[in-house]
Amino acid sequence: MKFKNKKKLVTYLNLLDQPIKFNPFVFSRSFLLWAALGIIGGIMAGLYWVSLEFLIHQVTFFEGWTVIPVMALAGLLAGLVIHWIGDPGEIHLIVNNIRFNKGKLDPKNNPSMILSSLLCVAAGGSLGPEAPLVQVTGSTGTWLGKLLRLKGESLRSLSIAGMASGFTALFGAPLGGSLFSLEILHYKYAVEYYKAIIPAFVASCFSYIIFALVVHLGIGPIWQLPSYEMASKLDFGYAVLFACLGTALGWFFIYCTKWLKSCFSYFHAPIFVKTLIGGLLLGIIAFYFPLTRYFGHHELNELLSEERTMFFLCLLLLFKILAVSITVTSGWRGGFIIPLFFIGGTLGLIVHQFLPGISLSLGMVSCMAAINVCVTRTPMSTTILLTTLTGFQYFVPIFFASLTGYFLAPKVPFISSQKVKTSEE
């Protein structure tokens, strides 16, 4: 081997003197970093969930008309937290920062997000804890990356892995949580962020294990749907049919929320006034329809446990959509994934009364998948999440329903920061 440059020869000889690092596995030190992030995320999610259950247990003592002042007071307190500590933002801000702020989620928003979301969710707001957990664990990934002086895609990947750990801890689906953390960022070009998929997988697995140990979580479906056996190939067509109805309801939810947002924008008042008004409205709805209160984690099983009239189910569906929209637009904090599943499940129960010969489980999961994908643009992760949460063993019909919701969704996404920005992309 000839070297025309003496410096190159010296460099080559120095390399030969270095000890050979033998590692026959894909395993690397990065694995330990991702695992540590998952452990931290699992602990944070576990503590959040334990705190949330404690507060919910205290609030459930208030029933009947007392839910109205309780929810109004909770709205006022949450608004004051946001007013004094700072606005933690919503899901669109998380998406925007991951895509256009070099993958950085600011941890300084966490105190406001934790306190305000605990008050809102525990009081009975129609949003769930998934968005606050994603913000807190994702920003923890950013903080850890900055501590290790990571930059560029490495920092973005760690933030995404943190998001996945928080989402997975709540839903108990490491694969679905990991894919959701990618799909929610950019519904058309999620593949651009697939460098983060292995970090997200590792963090999700460790987060789920820790969360299960902290809260004594059982492994299995949380919604007890009737057993389902595929009767014929027409079931795929029924899945698409139900999905069309679920997608139409998704459109209705989107425009209902936009209309209420424009109504609240007319009030040039501090945030705590808006959250107070939101709390009053939510309390009134919860007084007449208790099943609209909270985010639907336990309420869907309660809905399945008794026979309901068509009139009741239609009113429940309408007022649940209204409750979720008010919660989103009045400044209350939380996530809308589980509430959308509840809305879709209620629609499935209504459709089943018109078509009793078709499986109730097929109708419910198809509507649940379609409405969630229509709003969030997450067909892959929604399919996996519903398979995990419902125990529905037939993967393909849910996927057909998810794709239907995706391709029939409005061109302008509900999460505004999912829009394509060609100058950045």
What is this structure's SSE topology?
Elements: H1 6-17, H2 29-59, H3 67-85, H4 91-100, H5 110-123, H6 130-147, H7 152-171, H8 174-183, H9 197-215, H10 234-265, H11 271-288, H12 299-305, H13 310-329, H14 337-354, H15 360-376, H16 379-390, H17 395-407
Helix pairs in contact: 2-5, 2-6, 2-7, 2-9, 3-5, 3-11, 5-6, 6-7, 7-8, 7-9, 8-9, 8-16, 10-13, 10-14, 10-15, 10-17, 11-13, 13-14, 14-15, 15-16, 15-17, 16-17
CATH homology group of the largest domain:
Clc chloride channel
The structural class is mainly alpha
Oligomer: single chain
- The H-and-E topology, N to C, reads as HHHHHHHHHHHHHHHHH
- Shape summary: globular
Helix content: 55-70%
Name of the top-level CATH class of the largest domain: Mainly Alpha
Written account of the structure:
The chain is mainly alpha-helical and 425 residues long. The chain folds into two domains: 30-215, Clc chloride channel, CATH 1.10.3080; 234-418, Clc chloride channel (Orthogonal Bundle), CATH 1.10.3080. 68% of the residues lie in helices and 0% in strands. The protein contains 17 helices and no strands. It has helices at 6-17, 29-59, 67-85, 91-100, 110-123, 130-147, 152-171, 174-183, 197-215, 234-265, 271-288, 299-305, 310-329, 337-354, 360-376, 379-390, 395-407.
How would you describe this structure in keywords?
2 domains, Clc chloride channel, mainly alpha, 425 residues
